[in-house]
Protein backbone atom coordinates (compact mmCIF):
# COMPACT_ATOMS: atom_id res chain seq x y z
CA UNK A 1 0.00 0.00 0.00
CA UNK A 2 1.36 3.44 -0.89
CA UNK A 3 2.44 5.83 1.87
CA UNK A 4 0.53 8.95 2.72
CA UNK A 5 0.30 11.60 0.04
CA UNK A 6 -2.27 14.33 -0.04
CA UNK A 7 -4.12 14.93 -3.25
CA UNK A 8 -2.47 17.39 -5.63
CA UNK A 9 -2.77 20.89 -4.21
CA UNK A 10 -5.58 22.89 -5.74
CA UNK A 11 -5.78 26.67 -5.92
CA UNK A 12 -6.82 28.19 -2.61
CA UNK A 13 -10.31 29.47 -1.94
CA UNK A 14 -9.39 33.08 -2.72
CA UNK A 15 -7.69 32.24 -6.03
CA UNK A 16 -10.80 30.39 -7.20
CA UNK A 17 -13.06 33.44 -6.77
CA UNK A 18 -13.67 35.93 -9.58
CA UNK A 19 -12.86 39.65 -9.06
CA UNK A 20 -16.47 40.57 -8.24
CA UNK A 21 -16.69 37.86 -5.59
CA UNK A 22 -13.42 38.98 -4.02
CA UNK A 23 -14.64 42.56 -3.90
CA UNK A 24 -17.88 41.47 -2.23
CA UNK A 25 -16.02 39.53 0.44
CA UNK A 26 -13.56 42.36 1.08
CA UNK A 27 -16.49 44.71 1.61
CA UNK A 28 -18.01 42.24 4.09
CA UNK A 29 -14.89 41.75 6.22
CA UNK A 30 -12.05 43.55 7.93
CA UNK A 31 -8.30 42.92 7.75
CA UNK A 32 -6.41 41.70 10.80
CA UNK A 33 -2.76 40.95 11.56
CA UNK A 34 -1.73 37.88 13.59
CA UNK A 35 1.86 37.72 14.95
CA UNK A 36 3.75 34.42 15.06
CA UNK A 37 2.29 31.91 17.56
CA UNK A 38 -0.99 33.85 17.80
CA UNK A 39 -4.13 31.69 17.55
CA UNK A 40 -6.51 32.73 14.77
CA UNK A 41 -9.29 30.60 16.24
CA UNK A 42 -9.52 28.35 19.29
CA UNK A 43 -10.83 24.80 19.54
CA UNK A 44 -14.17 24.82 21.35
CA UNK A 45 -14.99 28.47 20.67
CA UNK A 46 -18.31 29.60 19.26
CA UNK A 47 -18.41 30.05 15.49
CA UNK A 48 -19.03 33.71 14.74
CA UNK A 49 -16.67 34.39 11.81
CA UNK A 50 -14.51 32.89 9.07
CA UNK A 51 -11.01 33.96 8.07
CA UNK A 52 -9.35 34.06 4.67
CA UNK A 53 -5.56 33.99 4.93
CA UNK A 54 -4.14 36.68 2.67
CA UNK A 55 -0.49 36.26 3.64
CA UNK A 56 1.46 33.86 5.84
CA UNK A 57 1.13 30.30 7.13
CA UNK A 58 -0.77 28.70 10.00
CA UNK A 59 -1.04 25.23 11.50
CA UNK A 60 -4.25 23.42 12.42
CA UNK A 61 -4.07 21.46 15.68
CA UNK A 62 -6.46 19.50 17.86
CA UNK A 63 -6.04 18.87 21.59
CA UNK A 64 -6.32 15.28 22.81
CA UNK A 65 -7.86 14.26 26.12
CA UNK A 66 -4.41 14.02 27.72
CA UNK A 67 -3.56 17.58 26.68
CA UNK A 68 -1.34 16.94 23.65
CA UNK A 69 -1.71 19.06 20.53
CA UNK A 70 -1.78 17.06 17.29
CA UNK A 71 -0.96 18.81 14.02
CA UNK A 72 -3.66 18.08 11.44
CA UNK A 73 -2.79 20.38 8.55
CA UNK A 74 -1.31 23.69 7.46
CA UNK A 75 -3.14 26.58 5.83
CA UNK A 76 -1.58 29.27 3.68
CA UNK A 77 -2.27 32.21 1.38
CA UNK A 78 -5.75 32.08 -0.11
CA UNK A 79 -7.08 29.42 2.26
CA UNK A 80 -10.45 29.70 4.00
CA UNK A 81 -10.49 28.64 7.64
CA UNK A 82 -13.14 28.13 10.31
CA UNK A 83 -15.89 27.73 7.71
CA UNK A 84 -17.01 24.22 8.68
CA UNK A 85 -17.98 25.31 12.19
CA UNK A 86 -19.87 28.34 10.87
CA UNK A 87 -21.77 26.40 8.25
CA UNK A 88 -22.40 23.47 10.59
CA UNK A 89 -23.57 25.66 13.44
CA UNK A 90 -21.16 24.12 15.95
CA UNK A 91 -18.11 25.05 18.00
CA UNK A 92 -14.61 25.08 16.53
CA UNK A 93 -13.16 21.59 16.13
CA UNK A 94 -9.52 22.73 16.05
CA UNK A 95 -7.16 25.57 16.89
CA UNK A 96 -5.42 27.46 14.08
CA UNK A 97 -2.14 29.16 15.05
CA UNK A 98 0.13 31.46 13.04
CA UNK A 99 3.43 29.83 12.04
CA UNK A 100 4.59 33.10 10.49
CA UNK A 101 3.11 36.61 10.56
CA UNK A 102 -0.36 36.22 9.08
CA UNK A 103 -2.63 38.80 7.49
CA UNK A 104 -6.23 37.66 7.36
CA UNK A 105 -9.59 38.90 6.19
CA UNK A 106 -12.14 38.32 8.96
CA UNK A 107 -15.72 37.95 7.74
CA UNK A 108 -18.61 37.69 10.26
CA UNK A 109 -20.59 34.48 9.99
CA UNK A 110 -23.86 36.11 8.93
CA UNK A 111 -22.15 38.09 6.19
CA UNK A 112 -20.33 35.00 4.93
CA UNK A 113 -23.48 32.90 4.72
CA UNK A 114 -25.21 35.84 3.03
CA UNK A 115 -22.36 35.96 0.51
CA UNK A 116 -22.82 32.25 -0.23
CA UNK A 117 -26.56 32.75 -0.72
CA UNK A 118 -25.82 35.49 -3.25
CA UNK A 119 -23.12 33.40 -5.00
CA UNK A 120 -24.41 29.80 -4.99
CA UNK A 121 -21.58 28.61 -7.24
CA UNK A 122 -19.17 29.29 -4.37
CA UNK A 123 -21.04 26.69 -2.31
CA UNK A 124 -19.57 24.02 -4.61
CA UNK A 125 -16.09 25.42 -4.01
CA UNK A 126 -16.56 25.21 -0.24
CA UNK A 127 -18.00 21.70 -0.52
CA UNK A 128 -15.02 20.61 -2.62
CA UNK A 129 -12.70 21.92 0.08
CA UNK A 130 -14.53 19.80 2.68
CA UNK A 131 -14.14 16.68 0.57
CA UNK A 132 -10.44 17.24 -0.14
CA UNK A 133 -9.65 17.75 3.53
CA UNK A 134 -11.52 14.58 4.49
CA UNK A 135 -9.63 12.65 1.83
CA UNK A 136 -6.32 13.97 3.12
CA UNK A 137 -7.25 12.90 6.65
CA UNK A 138 -8.08 9.38 5.44
CA UNK A 139 -4.75 9.10 3.61
CA UNK A 140 -2.91 10.24 6.71
CA UNK A 141 -4.53 7.45 8.76
CA UNK A 142 -3.74 4.87 6.08
CA UNK A 143 -0.09 5.93 5.97
CA UNK A 144 0.27 5.60 9.74
CA UNK A 145 -0.69 1.95 9.39
CA UNK A 146 1.14 1.05 6.20
CA UNK A 147 4.43 2.90 5.66
CA UNK A 148 7.73 3.57 7.39
CA UNK A 149 8.68 6.87 8.97
CA UNK A 150 11.17 7.98 6.26
CA UNK A 151 8.63 7.35 3.51
CA UNK A 152 5.88 9.15 5.41
CA UNK A 153 8.14 12.14 5.90
CA UNK A 154 9.23 12.14 2.25
CA UNK A 155 5.60 12.06 1.12
CA UNK A 156 4.68 14.89 3.49
CA UNK A 157 7.61 17.03 2.32
CA UNK A 158 6.69 16.35 -1.30
CA UNK A 159 3.17 17.63 -0.66
CA UNK A 160 4.47 20.68 1.19
CA UNK A 161 6.94 21.47 -1.59
CA UNK A 162 4.21 21.26 -4.23
CA UNK A 163 1.97 23.48 -2.10
CA UNK A 164 4.78 25.98 -1.49
CA UNK A 165 5.60 26.21 -5.19
CA UNK A 166 2.11 27.64 -5.77
CA UNK A 167 3.07 30.71 -3.74
CA UNK A 168 6.79 31.15 -4.46
CA UNK A 169 8.61 30.03 -7.62
CA UNK A 170 11.43 27.47 -7.38
CA UNK A 171 15.00 28.77 -7.22
CA UNK A 172 17.06 28.88 -10.44
CA UNK A 173 18.52 25.47 -9.57
CA UNK A 174 15.00 24.02 -9.27
CA UNK A 175 15.03 23.71 -5.48
CA UNK A 176 11.87 24.57 -3.55
CA UNK A 177 11.88 26.07 -0.08
CA UNK A 178 8.96 24.76 1.97
CA UNK A 179 6.86 27.73 3.04
CA UNK A 180 5.34 26.64 6.37
CA UNK A 181 8.16 26.94 8.98
CA UNK A 182 7.46 23.67 10.80
CA UNK A 183 9.67 22.32 13.56
CA UNK A 184 10.75 18.68 13.77
CA UNK A 185 8.28 18.19 16.61
CA UNK A 186 5.44 19.60 14.50
CA UNK A 187 6.38 17.43 11.54
CA UNK A 188 6.43 14.40 13.82
CA UNK A 189 3.03 15.23 15.26
CA UNK A 190 1.58 15.55 11.76
CA UNK A 191 3.02 12.26 10.50
CA UNK A 192 2.43 10.34 13.75
CA UNK A 193 6.11 9.87 14.59
CA UNK A 194 8.51 10.95 17.31
CA UNK A 195 10.84 13.92 16.96
CA UNK A 196 13.75 11.45 16.97
CA UNK A 197 12.24 9.55 14.03
CA UNK A 198 11.87 12.80 12.10
CA UNK A 199 15.48 13.80 12.87
CA UNK A 200 16.79 10.44 11.63
CA UNK A 201 14.63 10.60 8.52
CA UNK A 202 15.80 14.14 7.73
CA UNK A 203 19.42 13.01 8.09
CA UNK A 204 18.75 10.18 5.65
CA UNK A 205 17.12 12.49 3.11
CA UNK A 206 20.04 14.91 3.40
CA UNK A 207 22.53 12.12 2.76
CA UNK A 208 20.60 11.21 -0.38
CA UNK A 209 20.88 14.87 -1.49
CA UNK A 210 17.10 15.18 -1.63
CA UNK A 211 16.80 18.06 0.84
CA UNK A 212 18.72 20.79 2.68
CA UNK A 213 17.77 21.88 6.17
CA UNK A 214 18.18 24.80 8.56
CA UNK A 215 16.36 26.01 11.65
CA UNK A 216 12.66 25.56 10.82
CA UNK A 217 13.67 25.57 7.16
CA UNK A 218 13.61 22.71 4.68
CA UNK A 219 14.52 23.06 1.02
CA UNK A 220 13.65 20.27 -1.37
CA UNK A 221 16.61 19.89 -3.73
CA UNK A 222 15.26 17.02 -5.85
CA UNK A 223 11.46 16.92 -5.88
CA UNK A 224 11.14 14.01 -8.32
CA UNK A 225 13.68 11.99 -6.35
CA UNK A 226 11.89 12.75 -3.09
CA UNK A 227 8.58 11.70 -4.62
CA UNK A 228 10.06 8.40 -5.81
CA UNK A 229 11.64 7.71 -2.43
CA UNK A 230 8.24 8.22 -0.78
CA UNK A 231 6.85 5.39 -2.93
CA UNK A 232 9.51 2.85 -1.89
CA UNK A 233 8.47 -0.13 0.21
CA UNK A 234 10.42 -2.76 2.12
From TrEMBL:
A Pfam family reported for this protein in Swiss-Prot or TrEMBL: cNMP_binding
Keyword Ligase among record annotations: no
PROSITE patterns: CNMP_BINDING_3 (PS50042), HTH_CRP_2 (PS51063)
Entry keyword annotation includes DNA-binding: yes
Domain Cyclic nucleotide-binding: 13-133
Keywords linked to the UniProt accession: DNA-binding, Transcription, Transcription regulation
InterPro entries, alphabetized: cNMP-bd_dom, cNMP-bd_dom_sf, Env_Response_Regulators, HTH_CRP, RmlC-like_jellyroll, WH-like_DNA-bd_sf, WH_DNA-bd_sf
Superkingdom of origin: Bacteria
Domain HTH crp-type: 147-224
Protein name (database record): Crp/Fnr family transcriptional regulator
Organism encoding this protein: Actinomadura meridiana
Organism lineage: Bacteria, Bacillati, Actinomycetota, Actinomycetes, Streptosporangiales
Amino acid sequence: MAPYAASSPRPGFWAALDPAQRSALRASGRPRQYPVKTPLVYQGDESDHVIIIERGWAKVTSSTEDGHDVVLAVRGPGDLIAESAVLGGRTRSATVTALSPVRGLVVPAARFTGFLDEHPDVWMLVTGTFVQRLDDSDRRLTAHMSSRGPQRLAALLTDLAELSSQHAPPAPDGSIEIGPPLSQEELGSWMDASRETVARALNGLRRKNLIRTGWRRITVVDLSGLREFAKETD
